[in-house]
Amino acid sequence: xxxxxxxxxxxxxxxxxxxxxxxxxxxxxxxxxxxxxxxxxxxxxxxxxxxxxxxxxxxxxxxxxxxxxxxxxxxxxxxxxxxxxxxxxxxxxxxxxxxxxxxxxxxxxxxxxxxxxxxxxxxxxxxxxxxxxxxxxxxxxxxxxxxxxxxxxxxxxxxxxxxxxxxxxxxxxxxxxxxxxxxxxxxxxxxxxxxxxxxxxxxxxxxxxxxxxxxxxxxxxxxxxxxxxxxxxxxxxxxxxxxxxxxxxxxxxxxxxxxxxxxxxxxxx
Amino acid sequence: xxxxxxxxxxxxxxxxxxxxxxxxxxxxxxxxxxxxxxxxxxxxxxxxxxxxxxxxxxxxxxxxxxxxxxxxxxxxxxxxxxxxxxxxxxxxxxxxxxxxxxxxxxxxxxxxxxxxxxxxxxxxxxxxxxxxxxxxxxxxxxxxxxxxxxxxxxxxxxxxxxxxxxxxxxxxxxxxxxxxxxxxxxxxxxxxxxxxxxxxxxxxxxxxxxxxxxxxxxxxxxxxxxxxxxxxxxxxxxxxxxxxxxxxxxxxxxxxxxxxxxxxxxxxxxxxxxxxxxxxxxxxxxxxxxxxxxxxxxxxxxxxxxxxxxxxxxxxx
Lengths: 269, 317
Known about the structure:
The structure holds two protein chains of two kinds.
Chain A: E1 9-18, E2 21-31, E3 36-40, H1 47-54, E4 62-67, E5 70-71, H2 77-83, E6 84-87, H3 99-104, H4 119-131, H5 147-160, E7 165-169, H6 177-190, E8 193-197, H7 201-207, E9 210-215, E10 218-224, H8 225-228, H9 231-238, E11 240-246, E12 252-259
Parallel strand pairs in A: 3-8, 3-9, 6-7, 7-8
Antiparallel strand pairs in A: 1-2, 1-4, 4-5, 9-10, 11-12
Chain B: H1 9-19, H2 30-64, H3 77-91, H4 101-120, H5 128-151, H6 155-166, H7 174-193, H8 195-202, H9 205-210, H10 215-237, H11 243-255, H12 259-283, H13 292-310
């Protein structure tokens, strides 16, 4: 129903400072329409900060973010929200919205201030819930769902938002192993351009067309996962000794052995 | 109609009708007409406005600080208003640059709120937790002024400060209605129009940003609106507790958290609740009146506890 046309994402030398400290410097990134890009790096490398400039949570000090060829920060916030949706990590609040109400929030960027819900909105919400296989959960209180179920509902919200670009910030954290695969299978099946910050290198290897590696706020490597993830890079960036290769099924696989003798390289200052 | 002086319902309607040009009031006795039109009607209207205002201000604070325990007075409004009012009661208008009790209360509320915002801000942002903590500290500061003044007050002055603190709509005049009514109407109109943004804000800062909401700006607007509305209401009616904290919850229990439904219900519930409470306040201890603050808690708390007990299955708490 109403297929979404995916768009490309371009980050042009984005620099982000928080309280005078540079968190992300000179970030250049490209995602072609329909691609699934992984953003990997150790904690504190600036993954979340970088992603926040894309879905308009944090304004870059310099540089530009182009979604579908337009500068996201030069358009009204609602228009940006019509193109880009995000599923980020944050504490759920105490207020008890139903699943339907949460997904319905995705319609907000498409509605004028005084505009009421229409039957089209209702159909879009129903369709979104169906795509994520959560139809039976419509009237459940969102906060009572399991981690995996909540993530699916948030993905449904992005579908209701009809966004052409989806940003995911560590979507598989706190999820059961199976739920992690189910979620990424679902995201992959949507066909929307996706940029996902991922902790798990093997998930990145399995699901992402290309990855960008972030170290101390700078992108130090990018390309197809199998070429980028090498033992040398993993030791340098993550401080772990690892073996990277093709497993018996023909899939690229990272096998982590332990902490490297040398602590992770601090990176370019 | 009920009150400390008995006026039959039919006469009440006839007085109102007469004043509005809809009926003939020549048969009515002047004293009755005066009681109804000059005293009862403005009082009832003020009660509605104050009840609605407190409830809406409470709902706004709860969204802005994203915490169900928010109430209209947490940003220093109550402490500031008290110190202003008590200053005039104990030391006279001269001590407050000639302001009356209400005006001094309003000024005190504004002063305390401004101090809270100044202390609570972090750069250009007003982070909720920080603002609330600043509000607590500023409240203590202003309370110390209030307590000192109370300690040097005469017994009669002291009693007056206590009564002010507990809230009342007695002595309501038509001139009292203007500002509070305007404040309630304007704030409610803004909120109803932006109800979707309020919902998004409850979903979290990141979620709200990704849905096209300017989180920082909206939070500031909400905090400022709630504080102004609370200040206006406290100035005219004193410290009526409980309504701002609990009525929004009751509304949410009845119709859910979606502000498009919850806000109108909050408004109506607040007004109705306070009307009932004021009715009780005037009749329970006839012919004298109980302060509203005494009754809002005594009446509201058991009802809220009942709803709490009933709301267990399928709830997150």
